[in-house]
Amino acid sequence: MEGQLSKGNQSMSLGISYVFACPIKSAISVLALVLATQPAVFAQQMSPSDLEAGVSGVDAQTIFQKQTGGNGKNAGTTGGGSASDSDNAIEVGDYARAEAVATDRLRTTQGGVAEIALRLSLIEAKMWQGKFQNLSKEIKPVTSLLNRTANVSPNLTARFYDDQSWISQLQGDPVESEKLAREAIAYWKKATQPDIAFLCGGIDHLAHLLEDKGAFAEAAQQYEEALALHSKLQGPRSVAVANQMERIAALAFRNGDQARAQKMYGEALSIKDATNSVYKPFSPQKADDAVFYRFLPGAPNVSRETADGITRERINGNNVTVEAALLLKGDDLLKNCKAMVRVTNGGNWKISVLPQGPDLIVLKPRIILAKQVQGESLAQTIEKKGNSKAKWIRFWGSQATTTSMTNIIGNGGGFYPYGGYMSPNFGYGGPMGYGGNSWSNRGSGMTTMMTSMPDFQARERAYQRAQAVADQTQKQAADVRESELGPSTVQPGSSVEGCLFYDQTKFDEATLRIPIGKAVFEFRFDHLR
After folding, report:
1. Which end of the chain is less packed: N or C, by CB atoms within 10 Å?
2. What is the pLDDT of residue 21?
């Protein structure tokens, strides 16, 4: 199950209910999305608003601090010192860098809190990239280190249990995952100064697990507790609070409480719109501050319609409307899918479309970050394959022949086709190549001559077919070049539309993220095959 879920923020616990990230953001978010939408084996359904469920790698005050020593002020909390740089990278979604930093520093860091923190950072960096394969092996050294290391803070121990909880969930053991999630929360609450951001993430994770098994009442209580903590830590009008309100709204909608769902959705949308993120230039930011406009069930700013066999989803945020449809089979010669996107700016300021790369996260049958295929590269490949096909059609067409039969009556003792004596019963004559081949069969006084000659009509048809393939190829390549959606600026009252191409075609569920300014519009597509 190794894939790549980096580049955006996703909570990767096979049940993600929504992908949380700007370009490269918080990974736990994706996990929650996967968990929220997958079948039994992993999780039946997580609340559709969970992309940030897993929380950030360091607390709000220390996230952007760079420390290189082992005695930084975060030592024993987020790992301090040597682990803080990789944690910082995780916080802003740069999981590949986090993995590289942690791997490099583990070469020279042995034992104690520093190694524990680095190993946890490495595990999380890999997990959020979808590299699930060896996580169980990598958690074992941490267990050993914890058993022989004194004075490990409750915050760091809690982080260990939280990581174990995610790994258990990925392995399809929700019971063990819930048990470990509760232990993680207990350790965070024991700390004199608990990492509130981590604690909120742990609470949300537990709530997802409870919701998955149908314990809606307790799940609601957990979401409410996290909401209170976020409100106290970041403020009642923070984006983190808005995200938490969406989780509560999604659960309320699922339980049929329309009034509460609409109230919470409305408040969350008001908070996000007030940031004007769609009009701001993109810059990396920590997970709790990233504005995501998500396609959530029952939300007032989303709609869906199906026409001509194509399902289109629409999200509105800050008077900017983004529409998207996902097609698994393109009309070109390659194996790729394409997303058709339209962005309409109904606001009063210009917006930046795709200031960072758009992400397509495949959720089922396995989690993987689809690779975007650039339009020019795709067009060139289409031309190459088309021209190669046309070449072979011409080649085989040039070999087309037809056979003519001639009967000769006589009783000779042989004959001399094109020179050279042939037996009276069977013979062959004639040069190979343009002149054709002649075969004869003589019996009962009659000789049948079969001559293979060039079929000029068939060759002409082949040439015409080859030209048609070449023309079609050129048109397809031109369409790809012209339709590709790239970075652009859209003025008030204007719109832009185009296509995005990806290398995956065989999947059932996926999340598409379209960055606009400093915000991200996130679409969820199910039942694609």
Report:
1. C
2. 34
Residues 383 and 469 in one domain: yes
Which of 281, 153, 208 is closest to 14 using CA atoms?
208
pLDDT digits (tens, 9 = 90+) for 358-375: 999 888 887 788 888 888
Instruction: Please tell me the distance from the alpha carbon of residue 5 to that of residue 366, in angstroms, as a whole number.
Output: 11
Nearest-5° Cα angle at 201, 43 to 158: 100
Strands 519-525, 291-294: pairing is: parallel
Q: CATH number of the domain that 314 lies in?
A: 2.60.40
Q: Distance (Å, rounded) from C-alpha 52 to C-alpha 61?
A: 18
**Number of structural domains found in the chain:** 2
> What is the token pair recorded at 398?
């040039």
The residues with which 408 forms a beta bridge, in sequence order, are 447
* More confident call, 467 vs 205: 205
Tokens of 256: 């049929």
User: Residue 487: its pLDDT value, please?
Assistant: 95
In this predicted structure, what is the pLDDT of residue 17?
Answer: 38
Q: Where are the alpha helices (DSSP H) in 369-420?
A: 375-398
24 in any annotated domain: no
In a domain, 324, yes or no: yes
